[in-house]
Amino acid sequence: MRSSLITIIAVILSFAALAQQPFEQYGYKVKVLTLSQGKYEEFFDQDTIVQIGSVMFNTVTNAITGFAVQDTVYSESNFEAQIISKFLSPDPLTEEYYSFSPYNFVLNNPIIYIDPDGRKVKPASKAAFNVLLNTLDPVSRKSVTLGEDGFVHINGSGEGANFTALKNLVDDDGTTEFILSENYEFVDSKGEIQTGTIGSIDNSSEVDVLFEAYGGTKSKEQLKAEGFSGANEDNGIFGITLLPGGGKDENGDGRGSANGNIIVVINPGLTDRNKAGTAAHEGFGHALFFILGKNPNHGESRETANQELEDQITKAVKEAFSNFDKSNN
C-alpha cells in the first residue's frame, strides 16, 4: 500500500512539473502564461500545502491531505486574491440602491462610475471638479485635488465659507455627486424611478430676443440705442439638487435621489461663471444644509421662505462669483 501511494505521489509531482514548463525537457524554455499575467501566485510549490490539480499535498509530510472540489473557494487561513474571483456578499448599501441587484458593480456602469470600497459611488468627472475649484479662492483651491479614485481630497487649509462648506461635504459619511447634465434620474413620491430634465440654456441677449421678435424691422444698433442690453445672459434652469428620501419630503418638490447619494445636477450649457455660482447654490446651500440636519428646502413663497437657507445661498454664490473672477481675470 505504501509503495502504491509513493508511486501515485511521484506521478502527480512529475505531471505538476511538466504542466509548469512542458517544453523544458526538449531544451526549449517558454514563458508560462497565467490568468493574472504573473500578478498573483498561481503555483504553490513553495507552500507547505500545495494544490496539484485537485489534490492538496503536504510537502513536509509527503502526504495527500485532501482534494479541492472544483469551483469552490479554498484557502489555508483566509480568502486570498489569487484564489477568489467572485463576490462573497451583497453591497452593504443595497437598501439605498434598491432598483439594482445587490450583487451588481457600480450600478452596472463601469465606464462612468467607480466603487473603490463598495460603499460610495461617484462620477470621476474632471469638468465637474473644475467647476468646484472655481467656487474657491486661488489660494484655497491649491489644497483641493481630484484623486485617482475619483473623489475630492483636501490636503491642506483654506479660507472662505465655500472652502469650509466643501470640506464639510468631503468629510461627511455620505457621498455628494456633482454632475454636468441636462438629464437626471429621480425617485418620485411613490418610490418609482423617473427621468427628469432641466432643459437647455438660452444664451441670447435682450437685443437678440427683440431683434427676432421685431422680425428684423429694427436693427440691433437701434435696440441698443433704446437701452436694451447686448450682453449674452443665461436663461433657463441652472441646476437641481436631489436628496436621499427627497421624493417623500412633503416640503420638497417630490424628487429624491435615485441612488442614495446627494446629487447636484448643473446645467452644462451655462457659462463657466454661472456653473460656479450654481455649484455654490446647490452644493453649499441645499446639500450642505441636508448633511447638517437643517431644512434644505426653499419656502413656497416669500412669506414662508427658509430665510437661513436663502442667506446661505446668497453668500455662497456671491463668494463663488468673486473667487471665479479672481482666478480667471
Strand content: 5-15%
Main β sheet profile:
3 strands, antiparallel
Alpha-beta content class? alpha+beta
- The counted number of beta strands is 13
**Approximate shape:** elongated
Count up the helices: 7
What does the radius of gyration come to? 30 Å
**Mean pLDDT across every amino acid position:** 75
How many structurally independent domains?
Answer: 2
| CA distance, first residue to last residue | 89 Å
Order of helices and strands: HEEEEEHEEHEEEHHEEEHH
* Spatial sequence of strands, sheet with the most strands: 1-2-3
Name the poorly predicted regions: 4-20, 32-45, 72-86, 117-121
| Percent helix | 25-40%
Features:
single chain; 329 residues; alpha+beta; 2 domains; 3-stranded antiparallel β-sheet; 3-stranded mixed β-sheet; 7 helices; 13 strands; elongated
